[in-house]
Each structure stands twice: as C-alpha cells, then as structure tokens.
Amino acid sequence: MRDWKKLWLTLLLLVCTGMVMTSCQSGRKEEEKTSLRIGISLYRGDDTFITNLCNILEEKAKEYEREKGIKVTLDIQDAKGSQNTQNNQVERFISLNCDVLCINLVDRMDASVIIDRAMTAGVPVVFFNRQPVEEDMNRWDQLYYVGVDAKETAVLQGEMVVDLYREHPEAIDRNGDGVVSYVMLEGETSHQDSLIRTEWSVQTLKDGGVPVEKITGGIANWERSQGSALMEQWLSEYPDTIELVISNNDDMALGAIDALERAQVSGVNIVGIDGTTQGLEALANGNLLGTVSANKENYAGAIVSLAAGSALRQALPAEYPLTDGKYYWTSQEILINKIEENQ
Fold first, then answer.
1. Which residues of 177-188 are buried (b: 16+ CB within 10 A; e: fewer)?
2. Predicted model pTM
C-alpha cells in the first residue's frame, strides 16, 4: 500500500513540475518575442493614395523597430482589384505564420472569407482605407479598422468652396450669372466613400448658400486617366459652361487638370480629396484649388501600432483611441489656395 502511495505522490509531483515548467516556458516565450511579421494586402498597388500611405507605413514600421527593439517584417502584396486574389494572399500570409494581417479590402462587402480564415488561425486583422460592413466587424473582437470619416471628408471639401464663395463669389461664379455650374467626378459605383463624398460635398455647398447647378457627372473609378477622358468629353459637350469640378479624389482631379490643359481652357476651379504627393504639387502650382488631406503620419502610425499591439496581445496604444473598441478615425484638414495669393 505504501508503495502505491509513493508512486502516486511521485506521479503527482512530476505532473505539477511539468505544469510549472510549461507555464514558465510560455511566459518566457512571450517575453522573448523579438520579431513581428505583418501581412499587408492592397486592393490596388497603383492607387496613388495607397502608394503614398504604404511609403509612410514602411517608415513607421522602422520607427517601431527602433523604439521597441522588435524587428518588423512587412510582406506587402498587391491584389490588383481581385477579391479572390486577396483571399489567396491571406491564406499565404497565414501559412507563413504572419502575426497580424493589415487588409485594404478589394470589396468591402465581401470580407467574410478573410475574417473566417483569420479567426480560425487566431490572427488579428487591421482593415484600413476601405471599411468592412458593420456586421462583419462585429463578428470577432480582434478586428479593427483605420480610416477617415467619409462624411467629414465631404463636408470639409464642400466647406472650402463655401468659405471661398462667401469671401470672393466672383472667384467661384466665374461668369457672374448667379449660379455655380459644376461637374462631379465619382469613384467606384457602389463604393461607400464615393457615394458619401458625392452626396455630402454638394449638400454642404447648398447648406452654405452656394447657388449650385449640376451639369453632369460620371464614374471615373478613382483613376486619373478616366477622369481625364470624362473631362475631355464634358468640355466638348458643354463648352464655356463648367465653372467647378468636384472630384471624389485627387487622381481624378488631376485627370481633369490634364484635360483642361490639353484644351487650353483656364478659369475652372477644381477640388479633390486625399492630399496625395501629386495633388499637393498641383495645389502648389495653382492648378488645384484645394484638397482634403488625411494626416498620413497619424494614419500609418495607427495601422502599425494597432497591428503590433494586437499581435503581441498587449494593451492597445492610448494615443490611438478607438471608437466602439474597433475604429480609429484619422484627422483631416483642408488645404486650399488663397485667392489673394493667386491674383
């Protein structure tokens, strides 16, 4: 009987010792985490705003390395506008043991496959720039979104024109007929940001007392070349009529500028959104009246910090407070050419 007792005590001691050692090893493994692998999939790598943002993302990753002593590897892939390609990229990221995913969705309505795979693998996801629907975001507590508030963007775009009209109505109503005739360059047909920017920029003009009249509008899919083609067509159809071009982003606005230069037409005001490098150049040389710019340093910093914090299972950084525990909204500002400076 004593022998059996001794055997049980020995077994119990071994089990307890093993549990303690496992616990210690687990803790030591967490403490010794010295690297992070972040899988980043872009809806389209040739999008100017996304290219600008990615450049800053890389800088922020290096900054995080220096500050935290944790090596950060960014695996950046271009989905080239294909949701199926992006889903396959996510599978690859997971197979390579990425610690966290940062996804710029191709189709914001179709995030379920990515979320399913991430949840199964236990890999957190930071979506950015193209916001998943609320139902998808609520499926798991390890899903986050970093972006700008589309309504705020549109209101700011409208306000820059309202303010200028109040100070210098003749600068907006170029022919002095009491009506500002405008055309609208829109992004993707069903894209949430495009719909909101289109609606609220114009509504803000009306609320601000600018007497506007829409001539026409069209879908240019965020692209400079498509914006240029549409503007060229409109200049032919409505000569000496267009006074204002409202564009959902800077690239399409730059396309409109290209068409105006080819046609040797001057005096048309153009406003964009994004504050891209090329957009800021057009602003500096007076071809672009104004743009709404997100704070890209803040934008990229939030993506990297949230990604690292969620991957390491640490408390998320206080400098990036989340709305509803999931959303970080990047600050924005109006950048505009002052009429006094251009005359």
1. eeebbbbbbbbb
2. 0.87
